[in-house]
Amino acid sequence: MPQLSARFTAELVEEIDRAASRFHRTRAEVIRQAVEYYLDDVEDLQLGLERLQDPSDAILDWEDVKRELLNQDQG
Question: 20 and 26 in contact (C-beta within 8 Å)?
């Protein structure tokens, strides 16, 4: 597995160490998981932005959708 190095503030290192201690993980495991979560979020955000910019994707009005769903439950 490739190794990377990075510089963190003392405060951030303290937070990482507290999380590592609390979850019985190493500092490296906490950082690795944090990066994985961040990259997943970035990917989800990018996909959402692409879908919002897609002219063929219909935009739904929340009030119309809510009304339709409530009417289905009552009918």
Answer: yes
